[in-house]
Design brief:
By secondary structure, the protein is α/β, with parallel strands linked by helices. The chain has eight helices and ten strands. 38% of the residues lie in helices and 26% in strands. Strand 1 and strand 2 (12-17) form a beta hairpin. It starts with a strand and ends with a helix.
Amino acid sequence: MTEETGRLDGRLAWARLPGSGPGVVFLPGYRSDMQGSKALALRDHCAASGQALLRFDYSGHGESAGRFEDGTIGQWAADAIAVFDALTEGPQILIGSSMGGWIALLLARARPERIAGLIGIAPAPDFTETLMWPAFTEEQRAEIMAKGVLDLPSQYGEPTPVTRALIEDGRRHNVLDAPIPLACPVRILQGMRDPDVPWQHALKLVDAIVGEDVRLHLIKDGDHRLSRPEDLRLLAETLDALRAQP
């Protein structure tokens, strides 16, 4: 099967693999994109199994138009909903990595009747408020409020610009402060050596989800990316098991 590519509304880059349902929608993380190792591993796995897959880049990410600094959780969730509505049909399994786990929850809330399952890979709902903001020093908080942006060093490359708009908009989209109604099966893969999203954060998500079919897989030596060969195998196995459920 040949993957189609395009741009939604001339802005949002996407790649779609035709196949059987339920389809899979991959939602990348903060400053990540659809060319990452997990996205490509899913593409290869779905191609081999004949399952439909949609990958895309949020605005300001990867091949999509826009500046990263102009993005917010609300904007990226709107991007995900637009791509989902335009390029998928029928039941879909959402796979969200890090911030993509938060976006997946917002997408599932917006389109509950279309969601057949959800897999979170080190999911980071509410990370701007519960993980990022508390970790800032008083000086950093003052800088972001006064200047509107703070450049944070990143172990993954160039410094990461964190904007005041991102923080303030994130508060309007928090999901862990109320029960999360999810009727679909939920699977969470979480490394216990994750320096960015502590494994205890996954417990908060499990506790918040109202549905009963929720399973948390803790990987004791796993990091945040969960992109090692054994991690990618686990992801593929988790997807196959979810797909096989009646």
